[in-house]
Amino acid sequence: MPDTELLVEFDQPQEVFFPGQPISGRVILITEEKYKARAVNIKFEGCAKTDWDDHESVRRVDAEGKAHYVQQRVNYSANVKYLESTALLWACRDGTNELAAGKYVWPFSYNLPANIPPSFEGKYGYIRYSVTAEVDRPWRFDKAKKRCITVSPLLDLNILPHAMTPLHDEASDTVGCCCFKKGYLEMRVDIPKTGFVPGETVPINLHILNHSSVPVTEVKAKILQQCKFVAFRHGNTFDFTGESLMAHSAREQKQDMNAVIKQTQALTVAPSNEHKLALELRLPSVTPTINQNSPIITVEYLVQISVDTTSTFSSDIDCEMSVLIGTVPIRQYLPPAYYPPNPALPPVMPTPMPPQIGGGVAPPPGYGFVPPQPEGSVPMNAPPYPGVGGGAEPLPSKGDAVVIPSAPPLSYQDSMYGTGGTQLNTDENEKPFVPKYPVFNDLPVYNPSAPPPE
User: Fold this and answer.
1) Which residues contact 231 (CB under 8 A, 6 or more apart)?
2) Does 34 reside within a domain?
3) How far apart (Å, rounded) are the C-alpha atoms in residues 395 and 373?
4) Total structural domains within the chain
5) Quick one: which of 40, 43, 223, 397 could link to 260 by a disulfide (CB 3.0–4.6 Å)?
6) What is the C-alpha radius of gyration for the chain, rounded to an integer number of angstroms?
7) CA nearest to 146, candidates 237, 27, 17
8) What residue numbers bound the domain in which 344 lies?
């Protein structure tokens, strides 16, 4: 019997969808002969999953009464269900349970919930969304086609005041140790704002003051993706309600740090001298910051800077700051050509922010959303976010709040970690799934406090 082909196609060719908006497309069945089928269903699923094994020592007593310890494997896991819905596309009504040879097309549409996190693949967990078409076949194995999709929330930096807040950190330490102390080294670090988007350049302004007797030889800068995973002994499954799951007992946490981008620059700062310089790190395709609507997986980003000397012991000093990765760049720092000014949007100014050294940048609840406008007010007709259909599609919403999309042209690119970033349940799809994230190309570098070029 010839193969029968089952396909799932989407109206959005990038297969990137926004919370609160519809997933639409069609299921296609092509058969060259009569095909036994009772019904055709489509299933929409979204979940977060964490999973790992640890080992612990367990005391055992043998038949002679002697105690000894053995290693026992203990599983920790957690599942959070964000969506699970099944719809009937076709059912046999005449009792034949048969489809004639030919091509069949069934359209579908499903509105995603508004408060779901972005797709993500990590070492100890993932956030994954899928669409599965299934043919119910009597007395035979069902035929199914599963497609993973990317969900990408609109994390608009324009409506997060602290995204525009400059970051500052400084460090100083003695070079050398004990009887070999060689003075001290001081470093001051400034980043002109907190919020960035993939494709944008993160400028790092350094002021190095060498009060030691040895020269500074090197500066290193890197951006790290800090992933935290929560799981429970012997597992737990939750339906997501927006409430915290952290009250459950036997909770364990794993952390994974991934390099996003690194840069090393050789330089010489002689003893009793100082030097200013700027480093630039361009963000590749990475998931936006995840710290809302995701109780078992969080993703944040750290900038680490290290200055090294020729000293054998205690030769370097370090600084660390947290940055926020969004999906819509800050409008006021871009040339007018990117989008015209919108008088309906209120101006947003930087706000003071307490020092957050390695503590993560936490957007306020409901990040990425703005309140609805009062009746009779001027509508916020911001330029449409790419891929939303030129403004023809309804805007994403959260309760009574409406997301105002606004951004210059972008592209959707596979996660920088590729299939290597997909490490759990890699065999549940035809091939490991790689999520796509918005990347903004050719954005100008915003660095008003940059030191003069050397």
Assistant:
1) 50, 51, 52, 76, 77, 78, 124, 125, 251, 252, 253, 254, 296
2) no
3) 14
4) 1
5) 223
6) 27
7) 27
8) 157-412
Closest CA to 383 of 371, 395, 367, 397: 395
d(CA 147, CA 45): 10
- Output the six-digit token pair for 242: 């927006």
What is the rounded CA–CA span in Å between residue 257 and residue 198? 18
Helices (H) and strands (E) in the chain, counts: 0, 25
Model confidence over 252-273: pLDDT tens digits?
A: 899 999 999 999 999 888 888 9
CA distance 44 to 53: 29
Contacts of 273 (CB under 8 A, 6+ apart): 210
Instruction: Sort 194 into a burial class: Cβ within 10 Å, 0-12 / 13-18 / 19+.
Output: buried
The tokens 């001051």 sit on which residue?
A: 188
Whether the CA torsion 121, 125, 128, 132 is positive or negative: it is positive
Pairing of strands 316-325, 297-309: antiparallel
Question: What DSSP string runs through 355-416?
Answer: --SSS---PPTTTT-BPPPPTTSPP--PPPPTTSTTTTSPPPEETTEE--------EEEE-T
- Give mean pLDDT, residues 401-405: 37
Q: What confidence tens digit (pLDDT) does each residue in 55-98 have?
A: 877 777 777 777 777 778 888 999 999 999 999 999 988 878 88
Q: Which residue, 304, 280, 301, is CA-closest to 220? A: 304
Domain with residue 395: its CATH number is 2.60.40.640
> Nearest to residue 305, comparing CAs of 182, 195, 208?
208
The residues, any chain, with a CB within 8 Å of residue 226's CB and separated by 6 or more, are 255, 257, 299, 300, 301, 302, 360
Tell me whether residue 29 is in a domain: no
The whole-angstrom separation of Cα 193 and Cα 249 is: 39
Give residue-wise pLDDT tens across range 303-329. 999 998 765 455 678 899 999 999 999
pLDDT at 342: 53
Does the pLDDT of residue 138 top 80, yes or no?
A: yes
Residue 317 lies in a domain: yes
